[in-house]
Amino acid sequence: MAETRDINVQARHIGEAAIIYASDYLNKLSGERIERECKRQLESGFRTLIINFRDTELVNSIGVSILVGVIDAAEQNTAQLIFADVNDHTVNLFEMLGLTRHVQIAKDESEALSWIRPQETSTASRTLTADTRR
């Protein structure tokens, strides 16, 4: 299990997953750090990103817009993106803004890790789903 740090952004690896830890307040500065770390993990070849919000009390509008950029980067890299340990207020915000249509919300990090899908299975699953709709 390797750990990396980008001034106030901690990340660790478990298997094929990179887990990034958000700070207590997700604003422009901390959001940009999270986005930079997520993109770095994607560039390193990780195809599952888990953002852990266990310490996050508040997400402002700029923080949300930066998370949309993280969602886009994950989708561009066909990566699985999971938010974990999100408080109820923030889950409601993400639902209201439509972010939950693009990410999975896990109750905690353990649940998020149990949702990791193997790369071959997820690709085959998407192909099968597309073929059965024809």
What features would you describe in this structure?
With 134 residues, the protein is an alpha/beta fold. It has one domain (3-132): 2-Layer Sandwich (Transcription Regulator spoIIAA), CATH 3.30.750.24. The protein is built from five helices and eight strands. Helix 1 (28-43) runs parallel beside helix 2 (61-76). The chain is globular and about 30 Å long.
Strands of the widest sheet, in order across it, are 1-2-3-5-7-8
Q: What's the CATH topology name?
A: Transcription Regulator spoIIAA
Number of strands: 8
Instruction: Report the span from N to C terminus.
Output: 43 Å
Q: What's the CATH architecture? A: 2-Layer Sandwich
The helix-and-strand class reads: alpha/beta
